[in-house]
Amino acid sequence: MAVTTTDTPAEVTWIHASRGWSIPDLGELWRFRELLYFLVWRDVKVRYKQTALGAAWAILQPFATMLVFSLFFGRLARMPSDGVPYPVFAFAALVPWTFFANGLTLSTQSLVLSQNLLKKVYFPRLAIPLAAVLSGGVDLALAMGVLAGMLAFYGIAPGAEALWIVPLLLLALATSLGVGLWLSALNVRYRDVGYVVPFLVQLWLFATPIAYPSSLLAEPWRTVYGINPMVGVVEGFRWALLGTGAAPGGALALSSLAAAALLVGGAFHFRRLERTFADVV
After folding, report:
1. How far apart are CA 202 and CA 274, in angstroms?
2. Which of 219, 64, 74 minimizes the C-alpha distance to 143?
3. Could you tell me if 174 and 263 are in contact, meaning their C-beta atoms sit under 8 angstroms apart?
4. pTM of the model
5. How far apart are CA 220 and CA 201, in angstroms?
6. Are 145 and 152 in contact (CB under 8 A)?
7. Where does residue 14 fall: left (phi above 0), alpha (psi -120 to 50 degrees), or beta otherwise?
């Protein structure tokens, strides 16, 4: 889709619907970057509007999960933690996981919740699920602050490998957005998708080495495990911040390829269906 604006009254602006499997127009999305900013800011404000604890929920969610995992998996089940205290072992994985899971959940529902906006004005529809994922950056920053405090409490000093958390977070963002594009487009037509997502997130949680280390798997299955994109993210986070094990080279490469496939496929799928959103939603 393309929009041409002009100050000359004699000219007419035409908006054409995309046809088939067209290439997503990223240039158009860039031209609407100011709208994207306000959509992100709107999502952040709505999330914590009229809440007693406000943004503290961004910390409580992964922290409470860490406490439960530490009790049942760390203390009772004696789950190995690659030589580091189990609480920080679990929390280092829950920080990127929570960012991914919240982004996936919010982006899936984003088009349905913005149906009034979809029906009234034209803008790149991709901005809505993208804003839902990016709005989790505020929660992520708060959780990273708690993680830094836990590292200091346990006397863990990350080295230069900590710089890897930036591309690892981008990988988590790409995975969340990729899956979110698939599910948000489907959710417009089939509202059952919204009910399936919580179960999908729960299954994905235990299919990712958060409560347990991937070192429990022997090669080559440990590398094949990287087909799950969040495996590379979680294992990379622990290696970069806690120094557990060797660099997750093979698994991380496989996770990156899987995330790229999800993102590119999701973008084309979203682009193909977006012309029907205003009519169906």
Report:
1. 28
2. 64
3. yes
4. 0.89
5. 26
6. no
7. beta
Q: Are 142 and 58 in contact (CB under 8 A)?
A: yes
Spatial distance between the Cα atoms of 58 and 139, rounded to a whole number of angstroms: 5
The pLDDT profile of the chain, 281 residues, written as one tens digit per residue, is 555 555 555 555 555 555 656 677 788 888 989 999 999 998 888 887 767 666 777 888 899 999 999 999 998 888 999 889 999 999 999 999 999 999 999 999 999 988 888 888 888 899 999 999 999 999 999 999 999 999 999 999 998 999 999 999 999 999 999 999 999 999 999 989 989 999 999 999 999 999 999 888 887 888 888 899 999 999 999 999 998 877 888 889 999 999 999 999 999 999 988 888 877 77
Distances from the Cα of 242 to the Cαs of 58, 87, 237, in angstroms? Answer: 22, 12, 8
Q: How is residue 192 written in tokens?
A: 């059952």
